């Protein structure tokens, strides 16, 4: 997708179901979403239609049912949403975001180890490209 798509929190619930497994029939999506949320079937189908109109989902007719698949990749969405969050709340500073979590004690030892590994890998790539 070339143009960023605005996804609401409710639409994100639908996308998360389809990112876990796709394609899915609308009835299967309804069942999975209703395990997480107390939403009426019509609400879920409205959200599916919105996501189709936004270009985040595709569908095909399967008899009398519809089978949905994501067009918007989870990783692409996460990168765009993450960048938007960092720009809006931390003036574009990733360090500010991480520092905020660290200061609140919300970084586990595993988080710190993963961040160190990511930075080390990035530094190796930078060194090899110079």
UniProtKB/TrEMBL annotation:
Any Pfam family the entry gives: Penicillinase_R
GO MF assignments: DNA binding
UniProt GO BP: negative regulation of DNA-templated transcription
Record's keyword terms, sorted: DNA-binding, Transcription, Transcription regulation
Family: Belongs to the BlaI transcriptional regulatory family.
The protein's name: BlaI/MecI/CopY family transcriptional regulator
Species the sequence originates in: Pseudidiomarina sp. PP-1MA
């Amino acid at each position: 997708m070339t143009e960023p798509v605005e996804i609401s929190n409710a639409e994100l619930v639908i996308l998360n179901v389809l990112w876990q497994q796709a394609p899915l029939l609308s009835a299967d999506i309804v069942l999975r979403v209703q395990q997480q949320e107390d939403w009426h079937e019509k609400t879920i189908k409205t959200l599916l239609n919105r996501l189709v109109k936004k270009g985040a989902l595709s569908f095909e007719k399967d008899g009398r049912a519809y089978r949905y698949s994501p067009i918007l990749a989870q990783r692409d969405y996460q990168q765009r949403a993450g960048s938007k969050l960092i720009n809006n709340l931390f003036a574009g500073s990733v360090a500010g975001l991480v520092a905020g979590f660290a200061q609140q004690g919300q970084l586990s030892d595993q988080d710190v180890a993963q961040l160190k590994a990511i930075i080390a890998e990035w530094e190796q790539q930078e060194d090899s490209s110079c």
